[in-house]
Write a structure and sequence with these properties.
The protein is α+β, with helices and mostly antiparallel strands. The protein has one helix at residues 50-61, and strands spanning 10-11, 25-28, 34-39, 45-49. It has a domain at 25-64. The longest helix has 12 residues, at 50-61.
C-alpha cells in the first residue's frame, strides 16, 4: 500500500498576517495531479486537478473574473 502524500501549503509573499486581519489563501501543489487551496482562517480546503487549476489561472490572468462596478 502506498501512502498518500500530505499537502504542503505555502502562502503568497504578498500576504501579510496581522492580528486585525489574518486572512490569506494558501496553495499546495506538491501532490501530483492535484492542487489544494486552503483558507488560512477556517482551514477549509478545496481540491482541483492540475488541469482545472491551470485553466483557472489562465482565465484569471486575462481578466475573465474581473468585477466591474
Amino acid at each position: 500500500m502506498t501512502a498518500v502524500p500530505a499537502f504542503e501549503f505555502r502562502t503568497s509573499t504578498a500576504c501579510t498576517y496581522n492580528n486585525s486581519d489574518p486572512r490569506c489563501v494558501e496553495v499546495a501543489t506538491n501532490v501530483p495531479g492535484k492542487v489544494a487551496v486552503r483558507n488560512s482562517v477556517t482551514g477549509e480546503t478545496v481540491e482541483f486537478t492540475t488541469v482545472e487549476w491551470t485553466d483557472f489561472l489562465t482565465s484569471a490572468k486575462v481578466g475573465e473574473f474581473d468585477v466591474t462596478v
